[in-house]
Design a protein that fits this description.
Structural class: mainly alpha
CATH superfamily of the largest domain: Helix-hairpin-Helix base-excision DNA repair enzymes (C-terminal)
Distance between the termini: 45 Å
Helix content: 40-55%
Strand content: under 5%
Oligomer: single chain
CATH architecture of the largest domain: Orthogonal Bundle
Number of strands: 0
Number of domains: 2
Bound molecules: iron/sulfur cluster
Number of helices: 11
Order of helices and strands: HHHHHHHHHHH
Length: about 270
């Protein structure tokens, strides 16, 4: 991946000296993933860092990547995974890959056939036509069924490109950047991550998963690497799966109990 230009100011960005030779206009600045985000309050920044460090100590950062898919395949995988257990979405992805070794064949396939192949995921009747439409949208906009070109964009640009596809939101765009072979810095927020963040007071209870993405990202350092952000997502997700359950969280064995306003409050 090309280095992020925001950390390497172009010489043409320097103020022009009086009488200096004409120079070509400076290239537009390329925003990184935190571009345009309101800065998070200092107390939340400190707390998010403490949460990250403690959970990393428990779950062992750096966490190994669980996928090694090209970005287009990761897009399909992410669309299947919404509100679905990993084992079920993994089975559905495998079934699609076996039936359509070329994703172009999935676009042309009868939607009912796609729906049958992914019957184990939640809402297959919605996901089948959506995946076909999104792949078609990629081909129309990119000129080919390949998202490798996103590596030449900044994370913010790449996410905006993906989110311009109907049906692609911040969780999916972040997952494509972070989990695929792009390995770009982006913070996905899944339902476990979201629940734990609310209980810890990092975000307010009324903030939905989609709008929580920029809020939680803004609490983490601007220069964090892809691995740092992946670790943050993974440890919060793992904590939601293993300790901070949806019902009856195990606060008595939680490393965050002393800084959690919900400790021993949730039944
Ligand atoms: S103290 Fe309880 S509610 Fe708070 S993060 Fe830990 S398990 Fe969740």
């Amino acid at each position: 991946m090309a280095p992020n230009p925001i950390h390497h100011p172009h010489p043409a960005d320097a103020p022009a000296r009086r009488g200096s030779a004409r120079r070509p206009p400076a290239p537009p600045k390329v925003p990184d993933e935190t571009h345009g985000l309101d800065p998070a309050p200092a107390d939340l920044v400190a707390k998010a860092r403490l949460v990250h460090d403690r959970l990393c100590a428990v779950y062992g950062c750096p966490i190994g990547y669980f996928h090694d898919l090209d970005p287009l395949s990761e897009l399909v995988s992410s669309l299947l995974s919404h509100r679905t257990r990993n084992a079920d979405s993994g089975r559905a992805f495998k079934a699609l890959r076996q039936r359509y070794p070329d994703w172009a064949d999935l676009i042309e396939a009868p939607t009912a056939e796609v729906e049958t192949l992914i019957h184990g995921v939640r809402w297959p009747e919605q996901k089948a036509p959506r995946i076909q439409a999104i792949l078609k949208g990629v081909r129309e906009r990119a000129g080919r069924l390949d998202l490798g070109f996103l590596a030449d964009m900044s994370p913010a640009e790449a996410r905006a490109w993906l989110e311009a596809l109907p049906g692609v939101g911040p969780k999916t765009s972040a997952a494509v950047l972070s989990f695929s072979t792009l390995r770009m810095p982006a913070l996905p927020v899944d339902s476990h991550h979201h629940r734990v963040a609310i209980r810890l007071g990092l975000i307010e209870a009324h903030v939905a998963v989609g709008p929580s993405h920029p809020l939680l990202r803004a609490q983490l350092p601007e220069g964090w690497s892809a691995q740092d952000l992946y670790d943050n997502h993974e440890v919060l997700m793992l904590h939601g799966q293993k300790v901070c359950h949806h019902r009856r969280p195990a606060c008595d064995r939680c490393t965050l109990a002393d800084i959690c306003p919900s400790a021993f409050q949730v039944t």
